[in-house]
Amino acid sequence: MALPELIEILPLDQPVRAEITVPGSKSITNRALILAALSHGQTILPGALWSEDTQVMADGLRKLGFIVNVADDPQEPCNRVITVHGKGGAVPPGGTPERPLELFVGNAGTAARFLAALVCLGQGVYRLHGVPRMHERPQAALFDALRELGYRVESPNDRLPVLIHGGGARAAKCRVSIAESSQFASALLLGADAGQWRVEVSGENAEESPYVVMTRKLITAFPRSGGRFQVEPDASSASYFLGAGFLVSGSAVTIRAAPATDWQVDAAFARFLPLPASVSRQTDLGDSIMTAVVLAPFGRQAVRFADLGRLRVQECERVLALRTELTKCGARVVEESDTLTVYPSPLHGAAIETYNDHRMAMCAAILGLKVPGIKLKNPSCVKKTFPNFFQKLATPPPDGLGARILDEKNGRVLSRAELFAE
Residue of 149, 207, 356, 366 with fewest CB within 10 Å of its CB? Predict the structure, then answer.
């Protein structure tokens, strides 16, 4: 049963006390899938996110010839217990230049970048392609690094679609810039041990980049000879509910089984409430900075959100999208270079364009819990990372927030079953 094309979120009419379970971390799940494929023996991944992005990764590994088994996770409907049978650093062969092995990556940046590095360890030719937006997203720094390692990478514009000629492990060195995406470095680091690659990461604060640090810590902790690796909840997803609890006065919202490590930069989100005068995407928060942006109009001071450049080349041009949609709701937002300054502002309802971007949809939904008249176009785009997001909003406390969500076409309150994004 599909979500309607346009829904309205009704404001909460009283404080809420809730303890929310959020699905597993997308970033950790997709890194763990690659590491499990490169490990020796069988690796079990409980708590793994099961959404569009992680399904694309699992499907890619299966297409390559890895055995990937998926079972329900009793703790969370949008998680799975995934078992991967690793091949000890070997990658099954691809096709020929005339008939390459095709890998579809959708709009999943992690799948596109991680699989591009992984297939270099095989033999033969692989072709990676995705949806049109994925074909617009940057890949050049990764492709250049793979060429520096000695692999043949064919793309006329250094974007997808791309033909990659595997060459197996080869002791070599490369340098990769993370100016546009830290995923380039993570892709190479995940395959470095099996590929005998020496990877030098460049770019501002390269060694302290939160997602590069996450990758290094995960590699160190991962069982390389098979075993069990627990995927922790997604801190970026948790930010929407923590933000809602802050937004609705008198509420107390917590996250059940919150991340136990410091691997996810967004685990720090709660420490930024109330919002300080300045927040950086580079040093303070990851994707949850978008949640902070939509909370800023309700604060007592202007907030400057800095170092937002990478948001421009993700699922949509997020800096422009945030400015456009918040302005549509009455907020005063000033964009200068890669900075947004958001001023305290009275907001009103509007029909929000989500740009087929899961995080734009979830941020806008949180606005609707406070501001009357917030309507979301294409809400089903949350399936990318959080298919049951709207079910969590609507489930009565303490397991959800108890929000009412309407089909805008007829004003009918949607049932829980109708709120799953598929």
Answer: 207
